[in-house]
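Below is one protein, fold included:
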Amino acid sequence: MPARVSESLVLRTYPLREADLIVSFLTRDQGKLRGVARRARRPKSRFGSGLERLSHVRMFYFQRENRELVELDSCELIHSQFALAADYASGVALDYLAEVSDELLPPAEPNERFFRLLVAVLAYLREHPGDVWPAVTYFSLWAVRLSGFLPALEVGPEDKRIAEEMLVKPISGLSPRAWSGRTARELRRFLMRRIEQHLERKLETPQFLEALN
């Protein structure tokens, strides 16, 4: 039963029995994995706050062949997103990033570019708390591109210009825009619809993002 350590982002957790958790997490080297964190719900858990939503951690785990779930041993926190949760808009954006990533990414398929996308968007949110629209729009566009189903952008000319800028610049280099108004709203809605069509199910978080406008 080989021991592994992977730089990871925690996507979601689910209760399992009285004290355990099922953890869905994205690794830099192995893609999305799911594992069991024993006794993680106890007050003195060895995981501490490392299993909070979108925590950036070094995950230590054991992986057996032909087993769907890995066995989580512990984790070391690199970056916490806990401070962002104090801002409601940022918290909703985190929920959206986690839900889309968990639903879009296939299991055990390495995708380092998607991992780096999430790290960059999370860094932007920490540096610009409450300024969620550049992060949500940038992430949505690149999520569909990296997943291989970026369609023809049937949006207005201004939204196309925004998309073209996002496809050639890092999120930290985007020019200032009125992201919370009409600008880029059509593009965001278009991309969210395409994600839902690809998944063949409705996402839970876009309705809460829409309520922020």
User: Anything to note?
Assistant: The helical segments are 88-104, 112-127, 132-146, 157-166, 185-199, 206-210. The mean pLDDT is 91. The radius of gyration is 18 Å.
